[in-house]
Amino acid sequence: MTALRRSAYPLRTTEPYADRSDLEPLGKLVADACVVGLGQATHNSHEFFTMKHRIFRYLVEKLGFTTFALEANWSAGLRLNDYVLHGKGDPRQIMDEEFQGSYVFWNTLEHLDLIEWMRAHNERHERKVQFMGADIGHAGEELYDRVLTLAMRHAPRLGRELAPLYRQLRPEPGAGAWPGHYLAKPLEERRWLVFLARRALALLRRHPWPDACSHAWAVRHAKVIAQTWTLYAHDLDDPAQLAQGLLHRDMAMAENTVWWRLRTGHRMLLSAHNAHVAYESFDPEHYPRVLGAFLRQYLGQRYVNVGFTFHRGSFNAWNEANNMTSFTVGPAASHSNEHTLDQIDDDDHLLDLRTVPARARAWLQVPRPTGVVGTVYPVAAPLIRLAHSYDMLIHLRRITAAHLLA
């Protein structure tokens, strides 16, 4: 315990509008990073979301970060970014339309508050912040419209070739219903639609136009469309195919994040579940490699991650009957990682796993039960080797359920 305390820094609060001077140790620890992955131990707890808001504000103000990236659809990110940059649209309506299905966990007052702060910041500052969605669970109509609009403006003949391909691919129902609608199609039909999406992408790549910037964005939008259709072309009832689909998803999120980083030059905060931002999968049979591992491969030491743990508290998740429910758990079991982490300090704290003494590092390398809650609860706590998964941890003693807007 004493060894762990040497690398721990107290945190006074999780609320974003409070003084942020206690985040200075975190700032020093991520000083050279271009992408900082921030996890969360549940998909829907107030303190995880507000702490990320708080950290993003610190990184913007002190270290010049300019993009908040979320484990959300690329098309949703584009719509919210239009609001953040230009005031276009109603963020609550956009969130209601885009954060459906498994993304409903982002449709919260906490995320709305973050997005409204980003818009207010941009109204006052010359250096703008942006919102990005890295994920591929749904390719909204926004992507098709943007590709075709750009193509018709800069290469009309190409636009006319793309139009019939995209007519067959455009999603019919909304973001929540579309994956189920698509998976109901025969597998062979889905694989044919992937061929069409890749055909459109190949046409765009082979026919650049004079405005290289708009062409690059059109290709990326088309790439995300192809990524999404590829995800659902896997036979998700086959365990081996499901594992390959999950591998494809995390690789795609990493590629999209790195592309945004290289295209914009922004330093980025990436918000996703602990299981994604980690370096090591806690279920390699079903989830072979995760987002954080790909980002470390692509960016090296310029990607750092922060996992979140908690001792007790509440969160929203779907129960076994597929109804959204608030669950309360804790305290953490005596043999868990959280039980020991909670004894380091009487307050919430940041723990730098890279600088702990050798004795503590040996303890951190042992797989132990760790609270990880996805979209559904109850679920067994997986065995996680903290030292192999994260650079840093933020441990919160108590969490509460987030405030859902839908």
Shape, please? globular
Q: Low-confidence spans: pLDDT under 50, at least 5 residues? A: none
- The proportion of residues forming helix, as a percent range, comes to 40-55%
Radius of gyration: 21 Å
Secondary structure: number of strands:
11
The helix count comes to 17
Q: Give helix and strand order, one letter per element, not per position.
A: HEHEHEHHHEHHHHHHEHHEEHEHEEHE
The main pleated sheet reads as:
9 strands, mixed
Please state the average pLDDT score: 96
Coarse structural class: alpha/beta
The share of residues in extended strands comes to 15-25%
In whole angstroms, the N-to-C terminal distance is 42 Å
Describe the structure.
- The chain has 406 residues and is an alpha/beta fold.
- Helix content is 48%, strand content 16%.
- The protein has 17 helices and eleven strands.
- The chain has helices at 2-5, 24-29, 46-63, 74-86, 91-98, 109-124, 141-154, 156-169, 178-183, 187-206, 212-232, 239-264, 274-277, 291-299, 337-341, 358-364, 386-389, and strands spanning 8-11, 35-38, 67-73, 130-135, 268-271, 303-318, 324-329, 348-352, 368-369, 383-384, 392-399.
- The strands form two sheets. Strands 1, 2, 3, 4, 5, 6, 7, 8 and 11 form a nine-stranded mixed β-sheet that branches.
- A hairpin with a 5-residue loop joins strand 6 (303-318) and strand 7 (324-329).
- The longest helix has 26 residues, at 239-264.
